[in-house]
């Protein structure tokens, strides 16, 4: 079933709103290249919209009532925002759930070494990447170093106009005959993804003089010692800003569309809500989705459930069944991207069940792989409900699967939230070049996602 092209339905006024929203999203992408930065940006947005820190209310014991707006940042890597509804929390919430981590290169805990008078940082790739795409590319370093005494040092290198950038070298084609015969998976090994960071030796130093020169810079500019890498979280990401793409400026090329292109409109749909909703509204932006949602800041942990329990206590629902009922009776859009149909690689798509750029926000009844492995598979009744909500609100939407049945697959956080027995379906933006250093989306799909998320919260 083919849906109309969203662009054909926009008035001049709506196009102006679409472009303003796209500009704000581009700025968000530039400021949120890591999950920590995304959580901090979300906190900034919510504070500006009048949300209060839930942890402060937990400490004070101040009760929550209809219309109250609260947020919680968890371990500086995940984020939740709530607008309390007039109905009891036990009646359930309307939830938008996205993730804010993206594929990247993480520094190892002992990363710095010198070889043949060149200094390198050793990395371990995070999430599913094509390793060859990260060669000969300007890279920036983002993250935090926590010293032994607890002092935190925020690090960003490679984004300012006069900053140096880092890179991973590639082999010149003149000598690459054997390399070019390898499969893409073996074109470069994971252990070869080393960031070149220096070549100038420290004067008067005999052992590893280039490495020592790098350590001198780290000490001078950030007060960081080599041992501090052990308690650091530093990520190599593509350097540079997100840009309008296409001569018609209809698209955005940027790093981290997966999944910040869904996280941003999810957050803004809750932050922009005015008044008192009937059901409590929630946006949850989680970490670690790209590696299975594991760890204390991933959706497979209990941080979300625990936060709902804190909300219930402050809202006067202090027994365990209140929390169970609140989660079970909730409805959720798992706001995550899907693969956009790419004519250059048409063979891996089922054309009748593929998302097209510019045709609106996309619903995926199930994801998973091959025999629907790892999928929550939303029920038909809930699919009918979201159809009605979208149509009534004039939202352009489409449906898709990730690709042909035997071509591969993927997953989202939907199945983890479905464990609470809530209704949940994947709903997000089609992306081209997904998991590449630079990904591509349509501004129309971003806008329709925001409209759809707002309609879901209100409906």
CATH topology (fold) name of the largest domain: Aminopeptidase
Terminal residue distance = 25 Å
**CATH domain class of the largest domain:** Alpha Beta
Radius of gyration, taken over Cα atoms and rounded to an integer in Å:
23 Å
User: Largest sheet, order of strands side by side?
Assistant: 1-2-3-13-4-14-20-16-18
Tally of structural domains? 2
Classify the helix fraction into a percent range: 25-40%
Structural write-up:
With 459 residues, this protein is an alpha/beta fold. It has two domains: 6-102 and 255-458, Zn peptidases (Aminopeptidase, 3-Layer(aba) Sandwich); 104-238, Aminopeptidase i, Domain 2, CATH 2.30.250. It is 28% helix and 24% strand. The protein is built from eleven helices and 22 strands. The strands form five sheets. The chain has a nine-stranded mixed sheet with strand order 1-2-3-13-4-14-20-16-18, sandwiched between helices. A six-stranded antiparallel sheet has the order 8-7-10-5-6-9. Helix 1 (12-31) packs across helix 11, helix 6 (257-271) crosses helix 11 (443-458) and helix 7 (303-314) crosses helix 8. The longest helix is centred in the first third of the chain and has 20 residues, at 12-31. It is globular and about 70 Å long. The model has no long low-confidence stretch (mean pLDDT 94).
